[in-house]
Amino acid sequence: MPATPRLCHLFIRLLLLACCLLPLTSVAVEDIALRIERVDDEFLLEGAFQVPVPSTVAWAVLTDYEGMPRFMDDLRESRVIERDGERLRVVQRGVTRLGPLSFDYDVEREVILEPERAVHSRALRGNVKKLDMTTFVEPEGTGTRIRFRAAMIPDFWVPPLVGARLIRARFERQFENLLKEMRRRAEAGR
Questions:
Q1: How many CB atoms lie within 10 A of CB 55?
Q2: Domain 5-188 belongs to what topology?
Q3: Which of 38, 60, 71, 153 lies in disulfide reach of 129, CB 3.0 to 4.6 Å?
Q4: Rg (CA), the chain
Q5: For 99, what's the count of Cα atoms within 13 Å in the CB-facing half-sphere?
Q6: Are 139 and 147 in contact (CB under 8 A)?
Q7: Cα distance between residue 112 and residue 121, in whole Å
Q8: How many CB atoms lie within 10 A of CB 39?
Q9: Residues in a beta bridge with 15
Q10: For residues 118 and 166, what is the distance between their CA atoms, to the nearest angstrom?
């Protein structure tokens, strides 16, 4: 099927949407070890980085779903619609910007928390066929090491050369937002 401008716009919107929803933390962008691989229609991501904040602060930011619209620049709404112990259902709506273009998104996902250790997340509905993520929070010295992995299958055709670049750019912006909030909270707690 040939790519049309409409399909390309849909691809960009949905790919950025999936990346926006990752519950990740951040460091200076150059310190992130990030690997993106495409296998058929699936994108596999793995990464790790160190953040200069206590793990309790990193955890609090990563799991502050209700507060995320205050510090994630593309998120208009983030609500926990159901909670059963450490199992949550979260709805997030927002707009992703790529240069002069902007794209709305709306996703519901299941989140399973392993307090202070890991966040497991999978899409229940939205603009992806599959979106499974795990983020690990590991105290390391006076800071925190964050490791993550994700697997995503978009529900649309993805141009082979553009996908990984868009994912990387969206991850980096996500990291910047989260790191800024982590540092703000760490400094406020002093």
A1: 18
A2: Alpha-D-Glucose-1,6-Bisphosphate; Chain A, domain 4 (3.30.530)
A3: 153
A4: 16
A5: 3
A6: no
A7: 6
A8: 9
A9: none
A10: 26
CA distance 16 to 163: 9
* Residue whose entry in the numeric block shows the structure tokens 């978009």: 154
Residues listed for the chain: 190
**pTM here?**
0.79
Q: How far is CA 158 from CA 10, 11, 165, 170, 172, in A?
A: 9, 6, 12, 16, 20
- What is the structure's pLDDT at 167? 67
- Predicted local confidence at residue 129, as pLDDT: 82
Tokens of 45: 């991501």
Give me the average pLDDT of each 10-residue run along the chain (190 residues): 53 50 42 81 86 95 97 94 98 72 78 97 89 95 92 72 69 82 90
